[in-house]
Every structure is written in C-alpha cells, then in structure tokens.
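ok so I'm stuck.
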Amino acid sequence: MTAANRIEAMADGLAQTGRLDALESELQKFDPQKLAGVERESWYHLWGIAAFRRGDRARAFHRFLEARDACPDSGVIAFSLGQEHDARGEPELMLRLFDGHRFPKVAASYALAQARYAYLWNDLARAISYIEPIIDALKAREAAKA
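replied:
not stuck anymore, here's the structure
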C-alpha cells in the first residue's frame, strides 16, 4: 500500500469545492524542501500550474524550471516545462524534454500530446516515435491475450 499524497489530496479537495483559486496560498503552507517523492513532485508541479492558471506564463516558466531542477526525473514536470517552451516558440527545447520522457515513463495521454506538439512543429518522425511505444504495448497486450 502506498502512502497518501497530501499535496494531491489538498488540490483535489480544492477542485471539488470550486476553490482552485486558493491553490497557491495552500501550497505555501508546505515547505517543499521537507517533502519527498511524489509529494515533492506534486508540490513543484502544482506550484507551476498555479502561476499558469493565474495567467502569469513568465512565472510559470520559471517555476517549472525550478521544478525540473528539484525533480529531474519527473515526466509531468518535463511535459509542463515543454509546454512553456512551446508557448515561447522554443520547439527544440520542448522536444528535447519530451525525448527524455517517453511512454511508459509518462502516461499515454502525455505521449499522445507530445506527438501532437511534434506534429504541429513539423517533426513527423518525432511525433511517430512518441506514439510507437504505445502501439507496441497494445500489441503486446493483445498477444498476451491470445
């Protein structure tokens, strides 16, 4: 059994009660340096999202950079930072982040979004490379059923 993620639970509670505008102030009640594992990752990810939700893309970008430094193996943080690079017109930086965090290191939904971004930046080969592992996993699952 895994321990509960207090950060995600707090954010889910805010979302369920229509209070996501309080996300940033609630996150400030935690010291990210005292968090570990998924709670640390969730805190940094949501810290960037809070700025994004306020429309402060510059601050979101810097928070996601900080998050990347704090949680370098996080696929969700790499994806969010990649999206900010996209918004800044920096597709190569975005795609490099995506290259380092492919399915199954990230959820299939992220891999599909990575493929869409690559396609929109005219990199069809990369777009296909982000989807291929999903197809391979589906084929393997079907073969196991047979």
